[in-house]
Amino acid sequence: MGIAANRIYRRSELGLWLERAAAGWEKFFTPEEILYGRKLYKEGAVRTLELNASDAIVCAKLADGSEPYCVIDFDGIEMRGRGGSRADLTAAALRVAGLYEIEELVADAFSLELFPDAVLEQAAEKKDAQKTQAEGDSSPETSSPAEPESENEFPKLELHFSSRKKGLVFAPFWVFADGSSRRAFGEKCVPVSELEAVQRESAVRLAAMARKAGFKYEAGVYTLAEISKIPSFLQVQLGSWKKYFLIKKDKNVDLLALGEREVSLSPVAKTLGGNTADFDVEWSPSVGGKAVAASEFSKIVGAGITSLRIVPDYGILRLSSADTAFVKNVERAREYGFEAGKIPRYMLLSLSDFSPKVGMSGELKEWADSLAENTAENARPLPDFLRRYQKRGVLWADRLFAHDCNALIADEMGLGKTLQTLALVDMYLRETPSGKFFVACPASVIPVWISEAAKFFPNIRCGVFSGSSNFEAADLWISSYTQLRRNRVLAESAFFEMAALDEAQFIKNPDAKTTAACMALRARRKIALTGTPVENRPLDMWTAFRWLMPGLMGQRAAFEKSAQTDPSFLKNIRRQIAPFVLRRLKSEVAGELPEKIFVDLACPMSEQQKSEYQKLLSEARGALGGAREDDSKARFTVLSLLTRLRQAACDAALLPWVGKDGVSEFGGKISVLLDKLEELFLGGKKILVFSQFARFLELIEAGIASRIPDVPVFTLTGSTRDRAKPVEAFQEISGSAVMLVSLRAGGTGITLTSADYVFLADPWWNPAAEEQAIDRVHRIGRKGDVFVYRMIAQDTVEERVRKLQEKKRALFNDLLGGLKDVSKHSKFIETVADILS
Fold first, then answer.
1. Which of 28, 400, 758, 797 gives 20 to 30 Å between its CA and that of 434?
2. 237-250 burial, b for 16+ CB within 10 Å, e for fewer?
3. Distance from chain centroid for Cα 787
4. Which has the closest alpha carbon to 170: 127, 137, 141?
């Protein structure tokens, strides 16, 4: 302490200042102000304290030499002004220091002047004469202070302790000789003027001891809200309080003295009647063998993982961090509007993780066990053309659907996600002939779905969804994401047996209108297809599962927060989604694949392509119709027009009268190729792109640079002087890369065995040339299989050429392979007519 303050006061007013000091003035100040004020008080900054009837004047001298002062105003025993302006920390702290000085003054005055040593000695001699409770009276517990039994002891200060949710609480009362009592502080309390010196000293002592123990005074009661301090106070400090005060406790206070008590859970998942596809969890919480009421249990969970909760009938309770997290995971289902007993069963798989601690009712246990079983491949009849892993994928999804779950197939590109989905459509269509099915996909992929259905499942009637669609006209409706967004109202008016999202990463933005349109689809079963389920951030996966199974991955805000703060976040997410995601890599199913896998990739044309193509087609048909038997010039014209048709099918920018400056967007082939390359690059793959048009390769390179700029691109064309340099660089680079190769430069004499995928950007009329290019990859030294994609423009000569290759391979080679034998004019006319038909 510093220099003692000069105190100016009237003895007759000390009783009033006693009440003011004991009235809990700290509540009017912030912790920062109290801390600073306490520091000033301990340093002796208060130099003069003047007490008047309604105010106190505090003068101080601070370390910086300044000499501020303040006035503390009172209205009766209540302080006015709430400690002054919060903007002035020093002024508020000075009031705090002044009030501590007032407490010290009052305590000194009553202890030394109004409570002389003779009385203290008498009290010490008689402290063993304390009253004891009647034997057997234990609830509520009452103890008497070790004070002398004389008439001037009354009234005695009695503290009524009780257990409340907000903490340990006591209310002070004056107990009189006749057994009556009145509040010690607050409304209708005993005025200080009616108290003797011993009672005044007792009141000051209580205020000081309560503050030291951590109690806060408000509205006539003291509260110890710091739960961690309560057991120690009851076990240790309360004993010393009994020397000075009567103590009375309610029956629940002793439960607090036991300290933390962990809540034990015996959770059981069970169906609660009604919809058997749903469940709820009964937690059966208990403490020391005593069941905890459901209403109280929910409050304990709400206290959080690191917090304690006082439940008066049970004491201080804590739920373990693991149990808290588990309960909150279950209860978050309520955030999605699932009513009691109406939590979808798919939530059970993720939330319980089949933990031994979680019991299941008989029906649910049977359900979970059957879902975990491996379904035999002959469980359902499936087409023979499906490979074994594709059959397993179909049966896996079917098993999930049968258990009221949905599925995400994340197979690597080329393994047949489309084919597996069509097999599911075919399966359910046979069971429900009137059922309708829906696929949303990028516009560039629509032709793939139509061609795959026509080739493998001709019984499925396909329709392209638009605003004028009549759902009765087809079984499977295929929509671009754009059309779905534009015609959302029509799409959501129908109920589908199954809905699929192809390239499901298109809904990775949860705020996009396209995502909202997908969310509005109503279907008995849902399946998402994507080779890249997570492109940039975990939220991509959250959005996909929000569509598949709402609630499985929680609310978005909590998901994003956990992604940033929880070190085990990814591990937990993998556990949650594991039962519903099927991911096979090419390397994992290599034993079931042929050495070379050929895929015809149908590509739509842009509107400009279609227009230019139709003009050229009309011109070619006219030239062919007017060709004479011996007219070699006409034959040359037709062949020239065929080349232009092939260029238009690739990209309108290849036509000399259009050029790259004459188009506003990439053609269909480049758009499809970029979609595929983006997926493959994310998987770390190497790709070869072949074309016989060097200018087409330049357009592809520009498209890659604009959309996927970070991927290394190598080129090998007729103008490449040192062919070994790009080949060697492509072979040795680690990670994703693409090489653009012209037929002329790359057909022979090079080895590119590090490539995983080959794209033939335009079909060659000589199949042998295609095989030659493919063999650049599939040579001795190649490890693994090769996927070969023939990119074929929809409804063009390329489709006709591809069909002729399959039907008349030998004739095709003879007539159009080398184009040297022009003597067979009739065969030439016949073949070209087939192409242009």
1. 400
2. ebeebeebbbbbbb
3. 35
4. 141
Amino acid at the residue 594: P
Task: Report d(CA 542, CA 573) in Å as an integer.
Answer: 9
pTM for this one? Answer: 0.59
Q: Which of 203-217, 396-410, 436-450, 630-644 has the lowest mean pLDDT?
A: 630-644
| 3-state SS track over 416-484 | CHHHHHHHHHHHHHHHCCCCCEEEEECHHHHHHHHHHHHHHCCCCCEEECCCCCCHHHCCEEEEEHHHH
374-590 and 601-817: identical CATH topology = yes
Q: Which residues contact 112 (CB under 8 A, 6 or more apart)?
A: none
Q: In CATH, what number does 374-590 get?
A: 3.40.50.10810
What is the per-residue pLDDT across 694-743, written as a single tens digit (0 to 9) for each? 899 999 999 999 888 888 999 888 777 676 788 888 888 888 899 898 87
Q: 175: which strand partners?
A: 156, 181
- Would you list the DSSP string of 126-151? TGGG---PPTT--SSEEE--S---SG
Residue type, 731: Q
pLDDT band at 341 (very low <50, low <70, confident <90, very high): low
Sequence-ordered strand ranges (E) for 567-712: 581-582, 596-603, 686-691
* Identity of residue 477: W
Partners of 808 in beta bridges:
none
CA distance 435 to 433: 6
Residue ranges covered by each domain of the chain: 6-113, 118-129+140-256, 261-368, 374-590, 601-817
